[in-house]
Amino acid sequence: MPLYKDVLLVRHGESEANLSGQLAHHTWDPPLTPKGVFQSERLAKQLIAAPVRYIVTSPLLRAQETVAPLSRVHHIQPVILEDLAEVDLGKWDGRRLQDLATANLPDFQAWRQDPEANPPPGGENIVAVGERVLSTLANFLENCQPSTLTVAATHADCIKGAVLVVLQARGPASRRMWVPNAGQLLLRHFDQDAWSIIFSPLCQRGEEDHWD
Question: Which of 12, 25, 74, 189 is catalytic?
Answer without folding.
Answer: 12
